[in-house]
Amino acid sequence: MSKTIVAIIGCGTIANSAPIPAYVANPDAEIKYFCDIRKERAEKAADQYGCGEAIEDYRIILEDPEVEAVSICTPNNCHALIAIDCMRAGKHVLCEKPAARTYEEALEMQKVQHETGKTLNIGVVNRFNTGVNIIKKMIEEGELGDLYHVYVSFRSHRSIPGLGGDFTNKAVAGGGALIDWGVHFLDIVMYCAGDPDPKTVTGQTYSKLGKDMKNYSYINMWAGPPNYEGTYDVDDFVTAMIRTAGPSITVNGAWAQNIGVNEMYIDFLGDKAGIRLQYGADFTIYSAKHGALLESNPKFAQTDQFQNEIDSFLSCIKSGEKLPSHIDTVILTAKIIQAIYQSSEQRTEISFVKEGALA
Ligand SMILES: NC(=O)c1ccc[n+]([C@@H]2O[C@H](COP(=O)([O-])OP(=O)(O)OC[C@H]3O[C@@H](n4cnc5c(N)ncnc54)[C@H](O)[C@@H]3O)[C@@H](O)[C@H]2O)c1
Transmembrane ranges (predicted)? Predict the structure, then answer.
């Protein structure tokens, strides 16, 4: 079988930490281009991995019929434009999360996917996580009983990324803690619960601890250092309640909050058993039997979720299989996130079952 020729667009943090090494490790893929508007980053990747040509304009990729697949690892404001251009040029696309800055942009991407028939997967990498898939199976097989509620907490004392950079600028990122971290947490919930249709959403976002940039205290800053000349106009805290055709969901998430202990977990609450999943780690099952309260910690071999994601993307291009990370499923999370922002702005509940709500 011939190798799939791949191009990487955006050679920053995530590209170097996950997708590029995963393509290099897959014997069926060959990276032909590293593209970044900061050409030195593309050149560094080409040097480091000993393959590919460094370019700064992704339109070169569009014109090269040899390229079958692209990984989009740029900031959120370029996702829709580049993904749409690539699909229209006949390329299969794996686009980093979130799908886009807004639900409308994600819908446009989905529309072009349907028109062109090219693959469009979003980097909701937890769908390729071993523990998450075990939980999904347990829920599907009724081991939790009736899954009636899911509680989501992703709260940190001080974790605002790159203050004044791309992540804290709404025009670039589309939002803050909710769209950047919340997208992963909500995606796990939706996946494990069988992607239930959202019915109503109410939420409130806050921009409190980061907006006075010079007085923001921190110890470490990912995606830093701060740029005090930049913009901070995104949420650093979100609280929300979502009713779906399946379980109800409550969300509390913060890049920064005055709390003692960081909390990164999801509680799946069934009437027979409950599960607490520690984000990116193991899970615990809680139940009761014969008057005893039971707690168990399943042991299993974790696999590399990023490698699984890239391997699955490459094989679905050949097989035509629709992966769980397809835009058709991920679009629901984009809809919920937009509704939380809309609910917060309008200080009202957003309903998908009444007239006048988002389609
Ligand atoms: N899946 C995950 O868990 C995960 C983790 C981190 C980041 N991400 C996502 O990945 C994306 C990138 O995040 P990052 O932390 O790597 O950011 P980054 O700033 O480190 O890297 C982005 C790169 O894209 C380049 N770029 C910008 N516009 C471009 C264009 N038009 N053409 C080519 N290159 C362009 C920038 O110069 C930069 O080098 C974001 O959407 C983010 O949400 C996903």
Answer: none
Full-model pTM = 0.97
Does the CB atom of residue 163 touch ligand 1 within 6 A?
A: no
Task: Give residue 15 CA to ligand 1 midpoint distance, Å.
Answer: 7
Across the chain, the runs of DSSP E, i.e. the strands, are 4-9, 29-35, 53-55, 69-72, 92-95, 120-122, 147-155, 198-206, 237-244, 248-254, 263-270, 273-278, 283-289, 292-296, 350-351
DSSP 8-state symbol, 266: E
71 lines ligand 1 (CB under 6 A): no
Burial of 64 (0-12, 13-18, 19+ CB in 10 A): middle
The 10s digit of each residue's pLDDT in 279-324 is: 999 999 999 999 999 999 999 999 999 999 999 999 999 999 999 9
Ligand 1 atom closest to the CA of 9, numbered from 1? 33
